[in-house]
Amino acid sequence: MPHLLDDIWLKPYAQAIRGRAARALAKAHDLTEGKMSLANWASAHMYYGLHRTTRGWVFREWAPHATSMWLVGDFSGWRNMPQYEVFRIPGTDVWERKFPARAFKHGGNYRLEMHWDGGHGERIPAYARYVVQDPETKLFSAQVWAPKKPYVWKNPVPPRKTQPFIYEAHVGMASEECRVATYAEFRDNVLPRIKAAGYDTVQLMAIMEHPYYGSFGYHVSSFFASSSRFGTPDELKSLVDAAHGMGLRVIM
Question: Helix (H, G, I), strand (E, B), or coil: what is residue 194?
Answer without folding.
Answer: helix
